[in-house]
Specification:
By secondary structure, the chain is mainly alpha-helical. The protein has eight helices and three strands. A three-stranded antiparallel β-sheet has the order 1-2-3. It is flat, with a radius of gyration of 19 Å.
Length: 226
């Protein structure tokens, strides 16, 4: 474990005064005897640190954009998918301590665990080195992502809602269809419906990600319609 922490410190470009803090960030709740000994509290903190840094960078980087445009950029840059991309980019999975069970469960849970651990690592960076340490890493890893698309991105739920509103339809409605799997690796199925225009289901490791998948599926059938 000590060697893992040492390797990760080099990747993060920060020498921890308290290496145990970084070690805690790598412990998923699935293997912790006590959830308070897992990385969940650090994940909570890291989510807020990431949000603050990304919001500040976007505020300064796009002075001509309105709040709604900045919010769409923010949503994309702080999303689970983006966190997973950053985690994969530094091969964070090599250091994560988690219980995955069977192969199917592992396949479903891996992105969620990677995203959560990435946030926990950001929380650990902040506690050990202050905002400057966390901000330096975030800017280094997120800079390229910010430059990928200069137009504000829209998530599937936003795009579907705007499609419905533009046609005078009611807002899309989302319902829980099913929840399965263990607590540390749940799988949700959500449905989305636009009255008289169809319904689609989507699955994901959280209700939010399942809603996004459902919205994407429905919008794919409606988006090209007039």
């Amino acid at each position: 474990m000590a060697s893992d922490v040492d390797q990760l410190q080099k990747i993060l470009r920060h020498c921890f005064a308290e290496p145990k803090l970084l070690g805690r960030a790598l412990v998923h709740a699935s293997i912790a005897d006590d959830r308070s000994q897992s990385n969940e509290r650090l994940e909570f903190l890291g989510d807020r640190v990431l949000g603050l840094v990304v919001a500040e960078v976007l505020f300064n980087r796009y002075p001509g954009e309105e709040e709604g445009e900045l919010a769409r950029r923010y949503a994309g840059l702080t999303s689970r998918d983006t966190l997973v991309r950053v985690a994969n980019g530094i091969a964070l999975d090599r250091f994560i301590q988690a219980q995955h069970g069977d192969k199917e469960t592992a396949k479903r849970s891996q992105p969620s665990v990677a995203a959560d651990t990435m946030e926990a690592v950001l929380g650990a960076l902040y506690l050990d080195g202050g905002l400057d340490a966390a901000k330096g890493f975030i800017i280094q890893q997120w800079e390229t992502l910010m430059e990928e698309d200069l137009s504000p991105p829209k998530d599937a739920k936003t795009a579907l809602q705007e499609w419905a509103q533009a046609r005078g339809l009611g807002l899309p409605t989302y319902e829980l269809v099913n929840r399965e799997g263990p607590d540390h690796a749940p799988l949700f199925t959500m449905s989305v419906t636009i009255k008289d225009h169809g319904m689609k289901n989507g699955t994901g490791a959280s209700r939010r990600s399942a809603e996004q998948a459902a919205a994407e599926a429905l919008f794919a059938t409606l988006g090209s319609l007039s």
